Amino acid sequence: MTLLVCSHPLLDVQAFEFEITDELGPSPEWLVELLRLDAPGALATKGDSSSSKVLLTSSDEIRAQVRDVLRVGGFKPTGRSKPASEYLLRAAGEGTLGSINPLVDACNVVSLHSGLPISVVDADRVVGQLRVAIADPGASYVFNASGQIIDVSGLLCLADEVGPCANAVKDCQRTKTSDQTRKAVVVVWGALAAHPRAERAAAWYRELLGRFGIASRNMTLVVG
Fold it and tell me: Tell me: the pLDDT tens digits for 170-206?
């Protein structure tokens, strides 16, 4: 699958797709343990065939860099509109970041320790070509089962032919994954100032999925 990416002065985006062929069951203890801030072994492979490891640790600098990426289109990533990775950091610090299922837990683990927001959408719910672009003024969507709406005007978003469906703050309910998801697209929202953190985060996420026998492959990014 190809992902069209708009020209952006600060964005370092990574994307891949994966397919589930077997039932996963609950998350194993080793994955749940990684949901802690002090978890040992929060390591990501480099984005190549090397076996060397790089520690990913969130920081105030990373959080500032991510917010700068989201401000480019005029969006204000503060308050309830702050990046999703910051919510994970707070929940982990308060001891309230619990296990949901292997797919969600793997995403949360990588986002927590890398400090980068990550979007996961159900590929079968996507309509047409996917692209990354700043949302038009007035753009919005429902982001949870309760019907709450987020205004994504000026926010860098993943979008399909229907409209914006995910971003670094809150993903759209329309394309969210569920227990029925079999194919998904993952977008890691990184900053050029932190390069190659996004690449390493994506590699770690794929490594975790691989431990469940889930095959994944990089998406082709077309920038323009």
Answer: 999 999 999 899 999 999 999 999 999 999 999 999 9
Q: Which tens digits make up the pLDDT trace of 79-135?
A: 999 999 999 999 999 999 999 999 999 999 999 999 999 999 999 999 999 999 999
Q: 3-class secondary structure for the chain?
A: CEEEECCCCCEEEEEEEEECCCCCCCCCHHHHHCCCCCCCCCEEECCCCCCCEEECCCCHHHHHHHHHHHHCCCCCCCHHHCCHHHHHHHHHHHCCCCCCCHHHHHHHHHHHHHCCCEEEEEHHHCCCCEEEEECCCCCEEECCCCCCEEECCCCEEEECCCCEEEECCCCCHHHECCCCCCEEEEEEEEEHHHCCHHHHHHHHHHHHHHCCCCEEEECEEEEC
